[in-house]
Amino acid sequence: METKFDKTLEILFELKVGDAMKKEVITIRPDDTMETLNDSMSRHRLSGMPVVEGDSLVGIVSISDLIAWFSKGGKPSSVREWMVKNPQCLYEDQPLIHAIKRFDQHGYGRFPVLDRESGKLVGIITKGDIILGTLRRMEQAYSEEEIRQYRASHFFEDVTADHIHLSLSFMVKGKDFDQAGHASTTMKKNLKRLGLPPDIIRRASIASYEAEMNVVIYAESGVMTFVIDGNRIRITVEDRGPGIPDIDLAMQEGYSTAEPWVRELGFGAGMGLPNIKKCADAMDIQSSVGVGTTLKIEIIYRSET
Amino acid sequence: MKLRDVVAILEGDCFCCEPHLLEAEVTRARASDLMSEILAADALPDILLTGLCNTHVIRTASVFGIKAVIIVRGKAPTKGMIDMANEEEIVLASTKEGLFTSCGKLYAAGIRGVKENI
C-alpha cells in the first residue's frame, strides 16, 4: 500500500463501527405485512430494514426480498416469511476496517450493529456510512493539524515586538546516561513545531546533542538554553564541571579525555566539539578549570534584512 | 526496497512497528558502533546497523534523521529503547546475524553504503 494512505488506514483501525453507524434505526416487526414494509421502505427511502421482535433482532429484509414477493404475486403475507433469518451482524466496538472486510466478503448492502454485551440492536451501517465517517474524521484530523501547525509556525509573524527572544531552558544531569539527549530531542520537536527549515533543525539538533553529551560525560550538571529570535537559534550550554585546560587541544579531532565507559557507549571519540563547530555558524567556548565551561553555539536560519 | 524487506532479509524481529514506517523506501545504510562517528558524518543513511544496544543509538538516529536502527548479534533492545523508538517514529529491529553478514545480505539485495568522510 502507498505510504500516503497509511493515515487513512490508521483511521479505519481507530474508528469503531459505533462511530460511523446510523443510530436511529427504522425497524419492522416480523408480524408486519409486506405491504407495510413496502410503504415504510418507500416512505423512508430505504433499501433494507432490520426485523425486530421485542428487543431482539430476528432478521433483515431488503429490497430484493420485496421484489421477490412482488414477482410471486404480492399476496398478503408477513415479513417473517420473506426476511433473511439470523442475519450477519457487526458489533459496535469492532474497528471500521473489520466492517469493510465483511462488506467485501458478503456483498451485503448493510449490516445491523449489535451491542456486544446485551446483544441488542443499536444501529445500522452501510458502505456510505463508512465513507462518511472516515471523511468526517479525516476532516477533523486535518483541521486540528492545520490549527496546530498554524499556531506554532506563525508564532514569529503573529507575535509583534521590537525584539522577540523565545527562550527555552533544560536542566542536564551529569552521568545520567539514560536521560542524556532528552533536551536535544525535545528541542528538535519544538523547532519542528515552530516551522524552522529541516536542515536547520538537523544542524541544531546534532550540535545540541553533542553538547548535551559532553555535559553528561564530563560535568556534574548543566543548563542548556535555546534562544530563538526569528533569525537565529542560539544555544548556550553552561556546566559545572572540571573545565577544559586546553581548548585548542580539545578542539582537535580525535583528542578525548573520556573514560572507557563512555567509549563503550559509543561516545568519547574526540569528535564532539569539532562536530559542533561544523554544524554551527558560530561557536565560542569559555572555560575555567575546576569551575565549568560555557559553550555558545549560533545557527542562523534567516539572514537579517 | 522498503524497510519491511530489509527486516525480512535479515530475518529480524521488529520492536517498533507502526506499519506505515515499514513502508519507507530505503537505499543507503551505515554500520558503526561509534555514535560520535555517525553524528560527525555528512552523509545521511536510511539505516544504521550497530552492535551497540542502548538508548543513544535511538537518540542518534533521531537527531541525525536515520529512519531505522538494526541491532545485530541478537541483542534485545531495552524497554527504554523501544519506547523511545516509538516516540521518535524510528523502526527498531534486531537480527541474530553478525554485523558483517547483515551488511553482506543487504548489499547483495541492493542496499549501498554512504560516503564515510570520517
- Give the helices and strands of chain A as they follow along the chain: HHHEEHHEEHEEHHEHHEEHHHEE
Cα gyration radius of chain B (Å) = 12 Å
Which stretches of chain B are low in confidence, meaning pLDDT under 50 for 5 or more residues running? none
What is the count of DSSP helices of chain B, taking H or I runs of 4+ residues? Answer: 5
CATH class of chain B: Alpha Beta
Find the CATH topology of chain B: Udp-n-acetylmuramoylalanyl-d-glutamate--2,6- Diaminopimelate Ligase, Chain: A, domain 1
Order of helices and strands of chain B: HEEHEHEHEHE
Overall shape of chain B = globular
Structure description:
The complex is a heterodimer of chains A (305) and B (118). With 305 residues, chain A is an alpha+beta fold. Chain A folds into two domains: 3-134, Roll (CBS-domain); 164-300, Histidine kinase-like ATPase, C-terminal domain (Heat Shock Protein 90, 2-Layer Sandwich), CATH 3.30.565.10. Helix content of chain A is 42%, strand content 23%. Chain A is built from 13 helices and eleven strands. Chain A has helices spanning 6-14, 17-20, 34-44, 63-71, 79-82, 96-106, 127-153, 155-158, 182-193, 198-218, 247-250, 260-264, 272-279, and strands at residues 48-53, 56-62, 84-85, 90-91, 110-114, 121-126, 166-173, 221-228, 232-240, 282-288, 292-300. In chain A, a hairpin with a 3-residue loop joins strand 10 (282-288) and strand 11. In chain A, helix 9 runs antiparallel to helix 10 (198-218) and helix 10 (198-218) runs antiparallel to helix 13. Chain A is elongated and about 105 Å long. Chain B is of the alpha/beta class and 118 residues long. Chain B has one domain: Udp-n-acetylmuramoylalanyl-d-glutamate--2,6- Diaminopimelate Ligase, Chain: A, domain 1. Chain B contains five helices and six strands; from the N terminus they run H-E-E-H-E-H-E-H-E-H-E. Chain B has a six-stranded mixed β-sheet with strand order 1-5-4-3-2-6, with helices on both faces. In chain B, strand 3, helix 3 and strand 4 (68-71) form a beta-alpha-beta unit. In chain B, helix 3 (55-64) packs parallel to helix 4 (79-88). Chain B is globular, with a radius of gyration of 12 Å. The mean pLDDT of chain B is 93. Classes of the chains: A alpha+beta (305), B alpha/beta (118). Chains A and B meet through helix 1, helix 9, helix 10 and helix 13 of A and helix 2 and helix 3 of B.
